[in-house]
Write a structure and sequence with these properties.
By secondary structure, the protein is an alpha+beta fold. Helix content is 32%, strand content 18%. The strands form three sheets. It has a three-stranded antiparallel beta sheet with strand order 1-3-2. A three-stranded antiparallel beta sheet has the order 4-6-9. The protein is globular and about 50 Å long. Belongs to the KptA/TPT1 family.
């Protein structure tokens, strides 16, 4: 499977597992799972056929591990805009987590902190490199440091998805460090 096809199938899966399953007639369960056979059939019925082998390749080759397969089911690991309960248990975060963004968002972030926007949770990275890649999708990246240790001590709940993305409801600005350092 060539890289262009891998990217197209991955984007199709993300769109329909995270955001618009109803558009192709899918009805995920409460945790976001759909039957793989139903997904493949729905995609074919809506003009985007792919094989089980292509799906397996996309799941295995995706460096961000965006999708999880469990038996005969698949779901997006996080990033949903549809109602889902990923059933992730609370987890103790590392002392620092990171968030990639771009400069044009900084004034709003300083004023309001990090909010989930149209997603269910704020997404945080365990390392600066990943946060840099995330921020670079929208332009020149700016990496914010999140004092996750202090947030956790203050009662904020964190969860970690199957692909290592840390999730929390919001990050108040007092827990953010702007610039290259933590302080």
């Amino acid at each position: 499977m060539d890289e262009r096809r891998t990217v197209r199938v991955s984007k199709y899966l993300a769109k329909h597992l995270r955001h618009q399953p109803e558009r192709i007639g899918l009805a995920p369960d409460a945790a976001g799972w759909v039957e793989i056979d139903a997904l493949i059939a729905a995609a074919a019925d809506h003009g985007f056929p792919f094989t089980r082998e292509e799906l397996d390749h996309v799941v295995a080759a995706n460096d961000k591990r965006r999708f999880a397969v469990e038996g005969t089911r698949i779901r997006a690991s996080q990033g949903h805009t549809i109602p889902v309960d990923l059933q992730l248990p609370p987890a103790v975060p590392p002392a620092w987590l990171y968030h990639g963004t771009v400069a044009r968002n900084l004034d709003a972030i300083r004023a309001e902190g990090l909010r989930p926007m149209n997603r269910h949770a704020v997404h945080l990275s365990a390392d600066r490199e990943t946060a840099t890649r995330v921020g670079a999708r929208r332009g020149r990246p700016v990496v914010l440091s999140v004092d996750a240790g202090a947030m956790h001590r203050d009662g904020h709940v964190f969860r970690v998805s199957a692909n290592g993305v840390w999730l929390t409801d919001a990050v108040p600005s007092r827990y953010l460090r702007f610039g290259d350092g933590r302080g």
